[in-house]
Amino acid sequence: MKHDQNASLRRRKKGILMSFLAAAAVLYLTACAEVPEPMETRATTFSDTSTAAPSESQSDGAQTTAPQTTEEPNGEPADTAQTTADSVHPVPPPDDADEETGIHTETTETLESIPYDTVYEYSDQYYEDERFVRVSGIDGCRLVTLVTTYQGDKVTDVSEHTEVLYQPTNEVIVIGTKKVITYGTAIVTENEVPFETEYVYDENAYDDERTTVQAGQNGYTTSEYRITYEKGVEVARELVTSEVTPPVPEILRIGTKPAYTEEQVTREENVVSYETVYEYDSTLEEGVQQVIVEGKDGYTENTYRITYYHGEEISRELVERTVHEPQNEVIVIGTKKEETFGMPYVDAAHGGYDYNVTQDFGGSNNHGGIDFGVWYGEPIVSVMSGTVVYAYDEGDIPTSDLRWTYGTYVVVEHENGTRTYYAHLSSRTVSVGDTVEKGEIVGYSGNTGRVSPAPTPSNPLAGTHLHFEIRVWNGSTYVKADPKDYLPRWNY
Ligand SMILES: [Zn+2]
Fold first, then answer.
1. CA 423 to ligand 1 center in whole angstroms
2. How do residues 384-427 score in pLDDT, each as one tens digit?
3. Rounded distance from Cα 467 to ligand 1 centre (Å)
4. Which stretches within 112-162 are classed as H helix?
5. Residues 57 and 122 occupy one common structural domain
6. Fewest beta carbons within 10 Å, which of 30, 153, 218, 490?
């Protein structure tokens, strides 16, 4: 019986619900019957709920989505009515009235809201002044069926049955835990001060050489700040410490010696040795040498402008060139032989020596020369080379002139300042102006002029001899000299 009753109740309930839903009774829609909307419609991105407070939400969709924070600033439930009383449904007339017993039942079905709870999730993804509804609360709904049994007008039994149609969806509110104000420390290098350069001069280095003695370093300030951040954005900074590092000057050493120098130099180059030229001079005595021109080597005088770099020659330019030709040395060699006197004839009868002097130089009659006893017609030669200055034949000179006594005679002048006389010749072979060599025949012996004894027709060769004289120039005139002092003494 009871079983049937229950079954009947279920049927009715189902029918009621169906008719309720089908009839779309507006009255209930606002109360309880509304099907929960999908959470996605209210949610945007929300990726992390792991740190949230345990959620009692029964909505699976809420775990992967979150509402925007500004959409529902508070956890106020939607305007779904908390009311339950207004959800009494009219009940159709009893279907199981028993006319005979007078017992009947009256069934009242009421939809009641099940209020949602609010749960809080704490997230360090949001600042502590931020909160938002991640999941909107939705009331649940239950159907309360009240069956009242009457016997007549008397209530004999009341039974109540409740069935949850759907559970409420808890409201989830996310509360940020991230600090709005945070602090940090920053150490910054700032206020850079450029270093200066100092120079040190070095006279031992070249002026294009520079050496870094000390590297420069910029100065700077190291400051420590305490920084206040609001929601990650710096809003204030306060200087805590500050340390100044002064700049370190750069020190450069610079040479002062000129890297490039120039010099002009003159050099004698390409020397050509002089040659010696010999000349022969017959007026100089044999064996005499005289340097008449001094020999000089030839050379080229080059003037260069030389450029040096760091003391090393790097280029030279010819500025001036003068060629000095060699000057040959000239030496004169004398070829003149010291001529000696020979004899005025060859004494063939005596083998060339042991001349027969018949009258000597000087004496009581002041003999001007020397007489040689010779054969008539002997060749008479010049005792030395020279030039014929007088040449007379017998009779050319009148007897009033004392020279007539010489008869035919020849006078030769020699370069050594002497003259030689050859007198009483039978004939002469040279004339004035002739040059004669030593030993050259100038005539033949005879007895012309005054001889003693004088020739006679019976003795035409009487008085034949050679009168020979040497006269020496004394600076103003020729003076007779003793021939024996000049002629070779070949035993005469
Ligand atoms: Zn004489």
1. 8
2. 999 999 999 999 999 999 999 999 999 999 999 999 999 999 99
3. 4
4. none
5. yes
6. 153
